[in-house]
From TrEMBL:
Its cofactor is Mn(2+); Ca(2+); Mg(2+). Component of the dolichol-phosphate mannose (DPM) synthase complex. This is Dolichol-phosphate mannosyltransferase subunit 1. Transfers mannose from GDP-mannose to dolichol monophosphate to form dolichol phosphate mannose (Dol-P-Man) which is the mannosyl donor in pathways leading to N-glycosylation, glycosyl phosphatidylinositol membrane anchoring, and O-mannosylation of proteins. Belongs to the glycosyltransferase 2 family. The chain crosses the membrane at residues 236-259. One of its GO terms (cellular component) is endoplasmic reticulum membrane. Pathway: Protein modification; protein glycosylation. Pfam families: Glycos_transf_2 (PF00535). InterPro entries: DPM1-like (IPR039528), Glyco_trans_2-like (IPR001173), Nucleotide-diphossugar_trans (IPR029044). GO terms for molecular function: dolichyl-phosphate beta-D-mannosyltransferase activity; metal ion binding. GO terms for biological process: dolichol-linked oligosaccharide biosynthetic process; GPI anchor biosynthetic process; protein O-linked glycosylation via mannose. SUPFAM superfamilies: Nucleotide-diphospho-sugar transferases.
Amino acid sequence: MSNIRYSVVVPAYRENGNLRPLVTRIFGALSQVNSPVAAHEVEVIVVDDNSRDGSVETVEQLQREGYNARIIVRTTERGLSSAVVRGFREAQGDNMLCMDADLQHPPEYVPAMLASMSPTKQFALGTRYAKGVEIDEGWPLYRRVISSGARMLALPLTSASDPMSGFFGIRKETFLKARNLNSQGFKIALDLLVKCNISNDAIAEVPFSFGVRTEGESKLSGKVILRYLEQLGELYWYRFSGVIVFLVILFFIIFVLMARALLSSFGGLDSNAQSKY
């Protein structure tokens, strides 16, 4: 019988340079004497979209060194949300955490995020919008505007303070209740909050500050913004109907025009990578 109670799922694409520091820092934090979660109860699952950049070899070497990490390589699927869903489905733990591979979700917060989940707290959310947290420190103005706009658009769907952070956890029993998940959507945390009908008092919020990416690239594009708006439209349709949907779509159009104007004013951005709202 497995003694794994917690699973950390890391969607990745061409993140080989970050995988070793990510895994070693996660287990380093779990090995601290004050960690509320024991390292031997945790597994790390990297879900890689066929990067072919040495990620498989790096994870295999970490396994030989004694780290409980494994990698799933997908060759026929692509996308952040579907990678998270795949990892959650294959997780052994009853408490599952999603975090980015780029170290902007600092691994030192993993013990607190895992420990915050319980039978009464079905969803853990890393939030940048808590007292004392430096919100998006070092981000240019257009990134702050887009981040705030994306958060505001989601407010009618959930009262969670930061569904855009991408640093979140969910109990497996709750995840398995989800129906009609949009695995092609951009923000799977928001999709789960809505589709699992998670109440406000079932959300545990853990304050955190974004770390600094040291390897690879993180870029924002107009295409990514449109994908997010499409997902919001689907979620609004799922929860609301009629006049409300019409007004929301109108709000979307206004937001798109504002976002495009901002992106154009800053010279445009690469359209091939994922963003961080």
